[in-house]
Amino acid sequence: MPKARLKIIPLGGLSEIGKNMMALEYQNDIIVIDAGLMFPEEEMLGIDLVIPDISYLVENRDKVRGIVLTHGHEDHIGALPYLLPQLNVPVYATKLTVGLVSVKLKERKAFSGAKLKTVSFGEKVSLGQFRVEFFPVCHSIPDSAGLIIQTPIGTVIHSGDFKLDYTPVCGEPTALSRLAQLGGQGVLLLLSDSTYAELPGYTPSESVVGETLDRVIAEAPGRVIVTTFSSLVSRIQQVIDSAAKYGRRVFIVGRSMSDTVHMAIELGYLHAPEGVLARLDELRGLPHNKIIFVTTGSQGEPTSALVRIANQDHPQLHIIRGDTVVISASPIPGNEGLINKTVDTLFKQGAQVLYNKVAPVHVHGHAAQEELKLMLSLIKPKFFVPVHGEYRHLSFHGTLAELVGIPKENIFVLEDGDVLELNQQSGKKTGKITYSNVYVDGLSVGDIGSVVLRDRKMLSKDGIVMVIIAINQQTGKLVGRPDIVSRGFVDTTESSEMIEASRDLVAKVLDHGGARPADWSYINTKIRDTLNKYYYDQTRRRPMVLPFMVKV
Amino acid sequence: MPKARLKIIPLGGLSEIGKNMMALEYQNDIIVIDAGLMFPEEEMLGIDLVIPDISYLVENRDKVRGIVLTHGHEDHIGALPYLLPQLNVPVYATKLTVGLVSVKLKERKAFSGAKLKTVSFGEKVSLGQFRVEFFPVCHSIPDSAGLIIQTPIGTVIHSGDFKLDYTPVCGEPTALSRLAQLGGQGVLLLLSDSTYAELPGYTPSESVVGETLDRVIAEAPGRVIVTTFSSLVSRIQQVIDSAAKYGRRVFIVGRSMSDTVHMAIELGYLHAPEGVLARLDELRGLPHNKIIFVTTGSQGEPTSALVRIANQDHPQLHIIRGDTVVISASPIPGNEGLINKTVDTLFKQGAQVLYNKVAPVHVHGHAAQEELKLMLSLIKPKFFVPVHGEYRHLSFHGTLAELVGIPKENIFVLEDGDVLELNQQSGKKTGKITYSNVYVDGLSVGDIGSVVLRDRKMLSKDGIVMVIIAINQQTGKLVGRPDIVSRGFVDTTESSEMIEASRDLVAKVLDHGGARPADWSYINTKIRDTLNKYYYDQTRRRPMVLPFMVKV
């Protein structure tokens, strides 16, 4: 009897910071891997978040056996508070990831009925005809997992986000020998992280950063302020270790940093020798060279502790000449401007600032080309699908797979919503499900469409001009002078003459309007055409012109 | 008799791409160095350009002896069309720079009476008590100059934008021995380019890129599309040279690229062997591996040739599977998103894309730390002012100067509008002139202030809601139902119920308005408060609420 085909459907993840999600489907069973969110791109004006479109999963709700999470970063778990109310299935993850998801669900008061299941490395979970085993990988958050998924037609390996770090600071190295062993037995499909597939060579070990941090902390003449991602527990561990070594005390600043540090200590992912961590009220009287602050703000977020400190807007802390600030993170694409501004502000106040461009104070958590090739070579999958990254990253990863000997026809670069079907012999893109970005703006999920975004774009560029006219219901004639109000278009004082002139222009147009002055759509168009042209001639700007009629 | 003090006043330049401009003032003479523009930052919504504030120069117009330009990039000459009408003084520059300024003035039909003077390297120009000599420096545009400025109290050297390239592709290497000789004689002040002062080491020679381009052009299986800055003449020269070597023909695509290439050939800065350059109508029938296109679009500009080709929106050209696209430029900060999108689109259509992250296809035109130290060491100035760059770059450059032995008290990191006064013994910041960014938006220069920008920001985030109410003049009572129109706030179909409910809410508030219903400012505030709260509760969004009253 010919076996059924395995379907692979990416539901997100074509972006560096991108709402990673994927469905695997076999007959009546679907499992979902990750449920991430994406921060909006520049042109998504006013949007808070972007999440995956799960219409396909909702339509096939009775098939969905569970959601499996690889690790606790926002781009892998952040959409859960929005999706779980629609798709209440069990969620499987390692201990820290479950902890982070719980915090997130509680914060958003999103969903109290979530079925969160903690899974250990090596444990196997049966989800319909799928059997899922978690294995450890190194990444920039502890407890990161890859997945070994047994399916009726063969083994699927999902790398999660990973790098190869033989000297990790927290947790175990990526489980290479287990993967090599599976490779020897035959692997049907590898799904592997492409985020850094552009970069030649190897990604350095986390411990490299420790050496730099240690030197900085040893040599800094005054206070040291280290900012990083709150989830980058290994980085915080290294700061604590150096602090202990040089007799400095560590002050954790900012709520989200405090929350994560406390959870990580409680769960045993972070270790602080007695007396190293301190509360802000213990600051007074401590010599400057005995002080380290650990704060959020590595992305220049306006409400973060570091940015408030830089802007002299923090209730307790401000920069003192001689402070050393270490930005131990790399910019998430799009945040460069905010970060640069923060660095400039810190320099102006007399701080010395160290960041990735000028000193090795950060390494990222993704495999570069040689590591990706090693992974491909150990696992030797029959089929390969690059995941996690923009199209160019997936393309480069596809090329790497070709280089190590996977036949071109077995490599599939997919886009969100593509359906890839595999049997043991061959694979084929067989279609595309309906898929689009889902925008979260305030309380609403999915109500913002292209019209609203187009309007916001137009408003942001040249503002708006409202024209209010009163028309006599009986005669259809204009009553009084048209009124004009603008916002974001011109300086209303300096341009008052032009605005007055345009009121007269509208009056004139309506007077000579001819044919059907009572026909609102005609009047509306007439006013807009006239003012669009007039304002463009006068200013070379194109505000949104919005006429409004009051019948009196 | 004690000599007067020399004043140094930066009027722009605190940005990587930044409207560089500076004034030197001695008694009754002012000379201006450069007159650049800046492209708007993300939060400057709808702004086309930012130019320097020249109020100080306009106030002291009778002192200004001339504008001296170092080279022809936008951030050094782009503000001239806006400033010359206000400040009609002679402009001095080398031949290509004068050519580019003429084109720019003609394009903008800005100013026909400009007094442009071409100056050769080594030639000396007297401007009041200043004597200015141009010397050659290497940068990413030919005919780049540094300035040796003799003043009554000593020699000032301005580096222009420069790097040290001992094997430049066009023009002469930076005039190091001349500078060393001046250093021996004593230099009062060095003003030096800080753009890449963050980067350790040396900037590679332009000829390094030539080797990569040559290999790409030799090995590409099909057509090659090279995109770069149109002013990067040396890059275009290297493409033409390799094309000639491998029997490919070069098609220049796009108006601005064609214009610059033709001017550069005419003025003798670019050399093409007979038969290498071709017109688009000669394309037909040519084998793909005999074709090179040179286009604009290296910054992902939506109207550029490359982006239109990528978006299948170019009248003559589209991507063919097997094309090799070389983006021979680095992203100007802020353009990363547009460029990445273009690269992804090209990959999706089957092109191979090479860019700076994956292959050495670009070097920039600014000195890195070792070169900056060499410059400081040769010139050995008494005083040092880092120029060209954001505050962090200037700070790093200041630190480099300290390292090579310039006393800290003789190094001045200035901000726009600062006034530094020097005599032969000491220097001091003595004040600050009025200085602010000047925004160009359409035809207007300087009319956009903080209110308009704040409104645009608010509109871009959550849109606008207009409320129109009719009030009976006699009774002061509401006539009919309030009207509400929104743009960029919510999907008006999906949210029609909420909008209807908010109309009723306004009516209710006005009915119960109490005290002084005829007082418009009271009504206005009341409506805004009510709707702000209601909409925020319903949506967590904060649209601009704009009530409008018609008296009937």
Describe this entry's structure for a reader.
2 copies of one chain form a homodimer. Chain A is α/β, with parallel strands linked by helices and 552 residues long. Chain A folds into 3 domains: 271 residues, Ribonuclease Z/Hydroxyacylglutathione hydrolase-like (Metallo-beta-lactamase, Chain A); 149 residues, 3-Layer(aba) Sandwich (Rossmann fold), CATH 3.40.50; 102 residues, Ubiquitin-like (UB roll) (Roll). Chain A contains 15 helices and 26 strands. In chain A, strands 7-6-5-3-2-1-20-21 form an 8-stranded mixed β-sheet. In chain A, helix 6 packs parallel to helix 7. The first copy, chain A, starts with 5 loop residues before the first strand and ends with a strand.
Number of domains of chain A: 3
Most extensive chain-chain interface = A-B, 66 and 66 residues
Gap between N and C termini of chain A, in Å?
Answer: 79 Å
Tally of contiguous helical segments of chain A: 15
The pLDDT mean of chain A sits at: 92
Strand coverage percent of chain A:
15-25%
The largest β sheet of chain A comes out as: 8 strands, mixed
Helix content of chain A: 25-40%
Silhouette of chain A: globular
Oligomer type: homodimer
> Which strands sit side by side, in order, in the main sheet of chain A?
7-6-5-3-2-1-20-21
- Evaluate the radius of gyration of chain A: 29 Å
The CATH first-level class of the largest domain in chain A comes to: Alpha Beta
Superfamily (CATH H level) name of the largest domain in chain A: Ribonuclease Z/Hydroxyacylglutathione hydrolase-like
Report the CATH topology name of the largest domain in chain A: Metallo-beta-lactamase, Chain A
What are the low-pLDDT stretches of chain A, counting only 5+ consecutive residues below 50?
Answer: none
How many E strands of chain A?
Answer: 26
Tell me the CATH architecture of the largest domain in chain A. Answer: 4-Layer Sandwich
By helix and strand content of chain A, what is the structural category? alpha/beta
